[in-house]
Amino acid sequence: MELVDRFFRPPDGNFFLFGPRGTGKSTWLRRNLGGAPYVDLLDAETFRSYSARPERLRELVEASPDSRNVIIDEIQKAPKLLDTVHQMMEQKRGWRFVLTGSSSRKLKRAGVDLLAGRAIRKTLHPFMAAELGERFDLGESLKLGLLPLVLGAPDPAQTLSSYAALYVREEVQAEGLVRNIGSFSRFLEAVSFSHASVLNTSAVARDCHVNRKTVEGFIAILEDLLLGFRLPVFTKRAKRKLIRHPKFYFADTGIFRSLRAVGPLDAPEEIGGGALEGLVAQHLRAWTAYSDQRSALYFWRTKSGLEIDFVVYGPDTFLAVEVKGSAAVHTRDVRALQAFAADYPGADLCLLYQGSERLMVGGVRCVPCEEFLKELVPNSPPLGI
C-alpha cells in the first residue's frame, strides 16, 4: 500500500506518540523525521544495549550535533531510559525528544510523570476515511478495520486474524501482565460481546469464569495497551435520570471482528451493527485527538432506555450522533435525538444510516454514514456545522 498522508500534526516540543501496534508510528517517524538519531527498542540487540547502558543515548545524540530531533521507538520496552531523557531535557540544548509507545502500562510503573510538562502526550490512530480518500471502502472497513499494518499487508485478512495473537504473545505474555494467559484469551472473546455496549463486568466475568476484579484488571490492560477504551456517560446539567456505567469499544473495528466469535446463534446484523458503531467511534475519537480544540467524546442513555450513541462536546462543538445500520430512516429512529434536543436545545443532531440520501426527519439531519466519515476532517466541524 502506498504511503498515506496522515492528519496527525506533531507539537513543536518534546512529545510522546502513543498508539496501538500497527497504526503506523514508525512509518510516520521515518517519513517525517528521517535522519534523526533513532533508537529502535523492538530490535533485540538495541534493546539489550540501551537497557544495560541507558547513558549510551547521550553518546548517540552528541555524535549527531546537527540533528534537533531524537527518536526512541517503543520506549515502554526500556523505561529506565526516561531518566537519561529527563537529564538531557534539563540541559536545554535544543533537542526535541519523540518517544513512541504501544503501551503505557510499564511507563506508569516507571514514573513517566517525571516528564510531566516536558513532553506532551499525543496519539496516532488507525486511518480515517478522509486520509484514504477514494481508497476508503465502507464495506471492507467494516470487515478489516483501518489499521495501516493490516491494510498494507499482502493478505490483510490473515494479518488481522493474527493481530490479537501477536499482542497476547509479545505484550501480555512476554511482559508478564497476567498470570493466566488462558483466562485472558477467554476474556478477549467474552469482552468482544460488550463492544459498542454498556459494559457489565459481572457478566463478562461469568462468561470467562473469573471474578469481577480480574475482569476489571484485564480491561485496564486493554486500555493500557491502547486496544480498547471506555466511553463515559454525558451528564452535564442532566435533566433526566441517567445510567452510570460506561460503554466499551475496541480501538479498531477490525480488532473487534477478529475476536468476535461467530456461530449459528449470532445474527449478522448484530455483529454488523457493532462494527458500524465502532467504526464511527474510532473516527470521532481520532477527530477529537487530531483537532486543536479540546472536545471530548461521550454517550447518553437514560434509565428509561433512551440512548444517543455519541455526544461530542467542546468549546465549539456540541453534536449528538446516533448510528443506525438500516438503509431507511423511520420517525421512531430519531426519538432519542429529539429527547436529547429537548434537554439540550443548543445541540446539533445527526443520524447516520446506510442509505444514500441526506434527509431531514423530525428535525434531525440524517446523513449516509460513508459520506459522514469521508467528510470528517480534523479542525473542520463535522457536517460543516
Query: Topology as H/E string?
Result: EHEHHEHEHEHHHHHEHHEEHHEEEHEEEH
Tally of alpha and pi helices: 16
Q: Care to count the β-strands? A: 14
Instruction: Estimate the mean pLDDT confidence.
Output: 90
The Cα radius of gyration reads: 22 Å
Low-confidence stretches: none
Task: Walk me through what this model shows.
- 39% of the residues lie in helices and 17% in strands.
- The protein is of the alpha/beta class.
- It has a 6-stranded mixed beta sheet with strand order 9-10-11-12-14-13, with helices on both faces. The chain has a 5-stranded parallel beta sheet with strand order 2-3-4-1-5. Strands 6-8-7 form a 3-stranded antiparallel beta sheet.
- Helix 11 packs across helix 12.
- The chain is globular, with a radius of gyration of 22 Å.
Brief digest:
The protein is an alpha/beta fold. Helices cover 39% and strands 17% of the residues.
